[in-house]
Write a structure and sequence with these properties.
By secondary structure, the protein is mainly beta. The protein has one domain. It is 11% helix and 41% strand. It contains 1 helix and 10 strands. The N terminus is likely disordered.
């Protein structure tokens, strides 16, 4: 008898999940962007590194962060608050939360970047990113401005 009760409970839960409204299931990740690159300017090492991770959930909330380390050790670290995706292009913006002492005056200001995922095949052109740019607001990604893009010398960009 317990076995039937257990199977019935599993069936009820499975049925409820299958018939759940799309709104109830909308909390999952709808867009995801990631970039990891040693630098974007030749020669290798001249621009240190760039890393970014951002996720947008079905309810519209965005979470993520990006870190841009410059030659000489200067850096900015941005909390991502905005993500817009159009095909293989993504725009990410947010607020600078931490910076190296020489760039401390930037803390609290908005920043934006653009990412282009050109594929993973050896025959595909290199993925591209823009520099970390100043922005008018942390929501500037919604405007999807065309920023100057630079080929990743090594590394990968993913836009989903």
């Amino acid at each position: 008898m317990r076995r039937w009760v257990g199977l019935l409970a599993v069936g009820v839960v499975a049925g409820a999940l299958l018939h759940a409204s799309p709104a109830a299931l909308a909390g999952g990740v709808t867009h995801s962007v990631s970039v990891g690159s040693a630098d974007i300017l030749p020669p290798p090492g001249s621009d240190a590194n760039f890393s970014l991770v951002a996720n947008q959930r079905g309810d519209g909330t965005v979470q993520g962060e990006w870190h841009d380390q410059f030659a000489g050790g200067s850096f900015v670290h941005i909390d991502v608050t905005c993500l817009a995706v159009d095909g293989n292009d993504a725009w990410v913006s947010g607020l600078i939360k931490v910076a190296s002492p020489d760039l401390a005056f930037l803390v609290g200001l908005p920043a934006i970047t653009q990412v282009r995922d050109n594929g993973t095949s050896a025959n595909d052109p290199p993925d591209q990113v823009s520099f970390t740019n100043g922005a008018e607001s942390a929501d500037d990604c919604l405007d999807q401005p065309e920023l100057p893009l630079f080929d990743l010398i090594n590394g990968q960009a993913k836009v989903r």
